[in-house]
Amino acid sequence: MERRLILTLLLLTSFVLGARSQNVSDLIISEVLATPDSTGFQDDFGRRSGWIELYNTSTGTVSFGGCYLTDDLSDLKKSLIPKNDLRTKLGPRQVTVLFASGEGNDGTFYAGFTLSPGKTVYLISNDGKTVVDSLPIPKDLAPGESVSKHASDAKMLRWTSDGKGGEPSPMVRNGDQNAETNAQIMARKDPHGWILTLVSVSVVFSALAILWFLFRIFFELPAKRAAAPKKAKPAKTSGQGIPDAETAAAIALALDMENGGDTYAAIALAMDLYFNDTVHDTEPYILTMRPSGPSQWNDKKLNFRKLPR
Amino acid sequence: MEQIINSLVQFWQYTGFANCTWQNLAMILIGIGFITVAILKEWEPLLLVPIGFGMIVGNIPMFPGLNIGIYEDGSVLNILYQGVKQGWYPPLIFLGIGAMTDFSALISQPRLILIGAAAQMGIFGAYLLALAFGFAPNEAGAIGIIGGADGPTAIFLSSKLAPDLMGAIAVSAYSYMALVPVIQRPIMLLLTTKKERLIRMPAPRAVSQREKIIFPIIGFLTTAFIVPSGLPLLGMLFFGNLLKESGVTRRLAETARGPLVDVVTTLIGLTVGASTQADKFLSAKSLLIFGLGLLSFVIATTSGVLFVKLFNLFLKEGRKINPLIGNAGVSAVPDSARVSEVVGREFDSTNHLLMHAMGPNVAGVIGSAVAAGILLSFLG
Predict the structure, then answer these.
(1) Range of B293's domain?
(2) What is the DSSP string of A55-101?
(3) Chain A hits for B371, Cβ within 8 Å
(4) What ipTM did this prediction achieve?
(5) For a surface tag, which of A119, A205, A237, B96 has the fewest beta carbons within 10 Å of its beta carbon?
């Protein structure tokens, strides 16, 4: 009973941990612009201020409502992102921008502090304690420039920053402006399709060949070995595996006296069936009893009302 | 009076007669053709009847904006169509296929697995041809999968790679699956000699229940680790088979291979048929897809038969494989295996090839799911 309980708890724990992987921990601060210039991105009020871009690295929707933004580790709850706004749900691999206008009451997407070079921006989980992600702003970041993170792996799960300023790209996944689809890449690299064909055919063959190999090694060969006739240990032989003349004559005489030709045929057939493994099919061990027709128990005729005569 | 006339005129504009085009009529006729063939010839009736009727449903001319068409958001047909569009139905059908498939033939003669792999050449042959005809790689991949002769796989992959072509690809795949006996027989006869057709294969050994239970687990782990992108199809296929073979989940297996697969087949057939609305379906591209689909079946059958002949060069006498089972690598279960049996018995009425052909046949199902996974990972 206790063992079952522990197992259930372990399963639940792994489930909860698995669920967390599709949560705020998947969010990153992908880009920050501290000081705007005169051509920068404007907020809903037409103002230009610093901004923080969040990116959802997962392939599921994540809600960042209830999380906090701060630039001060001694005040993790500096600016709350309102919880009850449906717009705080961020789709898979999508970005959103929050303005660091210093006026948190302006709306959901406004932080209650302003940004300045040399500081670090933190995204705090909705528990108000856990730092989900951070992005340091270089001291020498020029006005109008942003610092950003880019994917450093093919799965686009690890994002790193080189700590240098660059051209800002708010509301766009970083490094994604000219990204090609897989099909476009294949069209460029393999216009006639031969490479993909060769690779794919090899993979299909390999996958099924591995399956073949595994079943041959673990099942076919042992089954053949088991089915092979075992060499009987002769009781008395002439030293070459053949019964000596005296023994053979005694066996023949005994069989001849006890049995007729039919018995020999039956023995031969039985041995043939036994050694060729065709005596029995492997049954599924399920017996099915199906009535062949209506019985006294279920015959519909028995339910008919007899007509009065 | 004028009001009545105006109302009648307005009503007329909503009728099918006012909105009818020749394309609608053509598609309705094709739908009737499918139903006729399914009923009279009994060619894949479980698929062609729903698809044929779906074609008629999808091509009833109507006034747009009433929220009833399959491509109109929120309509009943549109909601049912999401199962095709989002790829929910194919894995459910694979669950049913797994629960009804007996892999004994494959387990008893594992070497036959390779024939299932060889027949997947149809997919890649059609991919190359589609590229040569100017299709984009993702479209070519979706067209190529017709050669897998597996309707659910074709729908699954085309919904991911080329949703616009899905109707034509699905109808093409199911149509040629119904035509397997017509397409494969002449190729098999052309590529084999009389002597080869008479080859007798050793009886497959009996397979223990333990092997049958282990097969779906090992099969799934092997294939899914190599091609994780085929997970929805492979996972459901092997899961269904485990339900069948475990012996302790009979009710689940019976539901999977019975009511569940029936419901999903009905819905997939009807909605795929209804998705062939004339304005989206009748095009030169669709005709080209039909042509490429036919070629993919030809290539797949040819590859399967030729592979067996090649394989035989390395096998001892008495262990040789009858090349008439090469066509069965095309995973139209069990039709292509049945073709092997029928053609084999034409030349030797006592030579039963069905059990042998079922091996490559079910291997073809696994192979086409693996191939779909590969195409998805490269082109998706």
Answers:
(1) 67-379
(2) EE-SSS-EE-TT-EEES-TT-TTSEEPPSS-GGGEE-TT-EEEEEE-
(3) 200, 204
(4) 0.83
(5) A237
| Structural tokens at position B118 | 């060889």
Chain B hits for A281, Cβ within 8 Å: 206
CA angle B310, B311, B315 (to 5 degrees): 125
Query: ∠ CA(B55), CA(B59), CA(B62), 5° rounding?
Result: 150
Are residues A275 and A148 part of one domain? no
Question: Containing domain of residue A281, as a range?
Answer: 241-287
Task: Name the domain count of chain B.
Answer: 1
Distance between start and end Cα atoms, chain A? 69
CB atoms under 10 Å from CB of B289, counted, come to: 28
Predicted local confidence at residue B89, as pLDDT: 93
Which range, A10-14, A236-240, B340-344, has the best average confidence (pLDDT)?
A: B340-344
B209 and A282: CB-CB below 8 Å? yes
pLDDT of the residue at A17: 46
Distances, alpha carbon B249 to alpha carbons A123, B40, B242, B245, in Å? 48, 38, 9, 8
β-bridge mates for residue A63, sequence order: A89
- Which residues, in sequence order, are bridge partners of residue B124? none
Instruction: State the Cα–Cα distance between residues B144 and B375, nearest whole angstrom.
Output: 9
Interface-testing mutation among B205, B234, B248, B296, with chain A (most A C-beta atoms within 10 A):
B205
Domain identity same for A159 and A198: no
A23 and A150 fall within a common domain: yes
How far apart are the CA of A89 and the nearest CA of chain B, in angstroms? 22
User: Over the stretch A225-262, which tens digit does the pLDDT of each residue have?
Assistant: 777 666 555 545 444 445 555 666 666 666 666 555 66
Pair A41, A97: CB distance under 8 Å: yes
Helices (DSSP H) in chain A: which residue ranges?
2-20, 182-189, 194-215, 221-227, 245-258, 261-275
Q: Is residue B156 part of a domain?
A: yes
pLDDT band, residue A299 (cuts 50/70/90)? low
A183, B138: Cβ pair inside 8 Å?
A: yes
Over 70: is that where the pLDDT of A120 sits? Answer: yes
Q: A64 with A96, same domain?
A: yes
- In terms of domains, do A175 and A186 share one? no
Nearest chain B Cα distance for residue A180, angstroms: 11
Distances (CA, A) of A297 to A290, A303, A306, B131, B377: 14, 10, 18, 67, 60
Residue in A closest to B226 by C-alpha: A207
User: How many angstroms separate the CA atoms of B43 and B181, rounded?
Assistant: 10
Phi-psi region for residue B336, left (φ > 0), alpha (ψ -120 to 50) or beta? alpha
Which one, of B334, B329, B379, B374, lies nearest residue B354 by Cα? B334
pLDDT of residue A18: 43
- Backbone phi, psi, residue A29, to 5°: -85, 110
CA distance B250 to B242: 10
CB pairs under 8 A between A and B: 129
Residues A194 and A118 in one domain: no
Task: Provide, as residue numbers in chain A, all residues whose Cβ is less than 8 Å from the Cβ of B111.
Answer: 212, 216
On whether residue B2 sits in a domain, the answer given is no
For residue A208, pLDDT over 60 is answered with yes
Q: Which two tokens stand for residue B61?
A: 């001319």
Claim to verify: residue A154 and residue A220 sit in the same structural domain: no
